[in-house]
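User: Here's a protein and a ligand (flavin-adenine dinucleotide). What would the complex look like?
Assistant: Let me lay out the input and then the predicted complex.
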Amino acid sequence: MTKVLIIGAGHAGGTAAALLRQHGHAGPIVLAGEEAAAPYQRPPLSKAWLKGEAGLDDLLLRPESFYVEQAIDLRLGVTATAIDAAARTVAFSDGTTETYDVLVLATGSTARRLPVPGGDDPSLLELRTLKDAERLKALLGPGKRLAVVGGGYVGLEAAASARALGADAVVIERMDRVLARVASQTLSDFFTALHRAHGVEILTSAEAQSLEARSLEDGVVRLADGRTIQADAILVGIGAQSCDGLAATAGLACDNGVVVDEQARTSDPAIFAIGDVTNRPVPVHDGARHRLESVPNALEQAKQAAAAIVGRPAPTPEVPWFWSDQYDVKLQIAGLPFGADRQVVRGDPTAPGFAVFHLQGQRLLCVEAVNAPAEFMGGRLLIGKATPVDAERLADAAVSMKAVAL
Ligand code: FAD
């Protein structure tokens, strides 16, 4: 019977294990991860859980009893240290070695460190794991001030949650707008105004030159322009990088992530890779390669690997999508904007309930929807089917999303 060893008990790894059993895989499954908790969802760590609106049980993908019932050998608190691809074994930090017939790498990504003096101080906070989130939460409350270095989704969500807990928050962004790497100017402008309206200080074109975390509760961010920002806690949220070191050392093809195909296969036929750790082709976007960091991506690739392992037909390719919650605003993004030649705004971009569409000629590539579920869902369908659209009708909020197709 085929033995499947999954390294990384996060969203992708936990889902792949469950899907394998669902698809009737009867052989042994070992799911090994370095964190202490059973597979859990990370999105609430910067949102509902951080604000105290969700507990640990709400985070878990499945209760721990599920793994026992499904005969999934869940090993927590162990780090895979080396893969011997020829011998088909993996060595772990506790001195054990595990064999496999099929290996699934689901090691995710880690928070980037800021490459400035003081950037590796252990008193700085990052937000990737439950442990990180617990540390952050303990420092937030009335009278506290959080400085967030990096105006990306995680940083902005943490700032919104800090405000909900009564703390002050300042966001320090190197670029001339927040969300610069991941969203349109329209969206950046909207979220900047939203945060300012909620009392968050947003500093753009502000480069952190050095960090001094004098203690966990006393830090200073020094900016390149000479300003200093005093805070009780400093959170660095400048993006994540693929945990592909294990794969690269084992000789697997890696290029900003483990290189996989449309079925999540790596360059070794016995090894799959899924989730944040991968560099994958996106069929809906002409097979262009991307390293996507999102729950839907982790789920899609878990489905691909599980289907390939049990010999089921490959699942239908999905349109990449992502969401972010800040205050009472839900942002939903479908598709990828790369290659777009124009943007069309539908609705009033200064108030929730609008969408930005990214077009390449008549082809819709991406929709950014702010409290606009119909635009998100309609846009996602149009992107998936590559249906040509009429830009003028798209811009007219009075025209239904069904009527924008050409
Ligand atoms: P992970 O869930 O990170 O799991 C990887 C696991 O592998 C980790 O537990 C890690 O410890 C373990 N591991 C790594 N190396 C080893 C090793 N050598 N041996 C053993 N174990 C190892 N996505 C959205 O779509 N929407 C959101 O709103 C959203 N919000 C987010 C908020 C936060 C704060 C964070 C951190 C992420 C958010 N994401 C969001 C991203 C989403 O959570 C990730 O894309 C998703 O968790 C990726 O799943 P994964 O299984 O690839 O990686």
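Summary: Residues 7-13, 32-35, 42-43, 45-46, 79-80, 106-108, 127-128, 154, 243, 246, 275-277, 293-296, 298, 322-324 surround flavin-adenine dinucleotide (CB under 6 Å).
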